[in-house]
Inverse folding.
């Protein structure tokens, strides 16, 4: 766990306080900040995590509601700082996690900023999600896909092949959650069709340009 001096925690309620900065092979600019007492992960033009305030996944988990009581195992592709776990933890849920993140610095920051009892039940894996899912066959109650390059969702995320491999990793009755940003309406039409072809029991919730997709398997 990162030790944050009390004065920085207090200052974070006035303005975001930078805790660490890095440049990695995958991200030229990464900043770990404390804002209103919670950790944020930012690049030069995007916010990847915002503690338990991260809006897209808050919307998804609020929608799942009572179904969360039965969740024991969660797979997260695109970890960020682990906002998926932060949100569920704030709701009182403590499943086990497999976190997949291709930037090792981000993964290390996540493990340093998540609650200790979440980390104790977590498996962190530094890997490209596309390569990881090819050979991964364990089943989970929830699979969260929250993968971005800046504000762009990589094309592979919404291909039928990738989505089918995700589906095989979800238990019957489990849930698929995908956070997507619509930058082009024509592309979005194709994306929506691809996802519905693999996950016909699909709900799409809007939050600005974000589309939060939730499916039951």
């Amino acid at each position: 766990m990162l030790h944050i001096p009390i004065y920085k925690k207090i200052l974070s309620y006035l303005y975001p306080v930078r805790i660490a900065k890095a440049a990695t092979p995958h991200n030229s600019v990464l900043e770990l900040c404390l804002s209103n007492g919670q950790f944020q992960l930012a690049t030069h033009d995007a916010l990847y995590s915002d503690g338990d305030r991260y809006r897209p996944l808050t919307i998804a988990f609020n929608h799942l509601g009572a179904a969360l009581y039965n969740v024991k195992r969660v797979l997260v592709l695109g970890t960020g700082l682990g906002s998926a776990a932060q949100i569920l933890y704030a709701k009182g849920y403590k499943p086990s996690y497999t976190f997949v993140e291709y930037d090792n610095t981000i993964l290390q920051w996540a493990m340093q900023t998540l609650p200790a009892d979440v980390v104790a039940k977590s498996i962190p894996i530094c890997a490209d999600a596309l390569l990881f899912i090819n050979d991964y066959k364990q089943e989970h109650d929830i699979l969260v896909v929250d993968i971005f390059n800046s504000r762009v969702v990589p094309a592979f995320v919404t291909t039928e092949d990738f989505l089918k491999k995700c589906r095989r990793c979800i238990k019957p009755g489990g849930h698929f959650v995908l956070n997507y940003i619509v930058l082009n309406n024509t592309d979005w039409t194709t994306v929506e069709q691809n996802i519905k072809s693999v996950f016909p029991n699909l709900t799409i919730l809007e939050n600005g340009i974000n589309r939060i997709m939730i499916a039951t398997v």
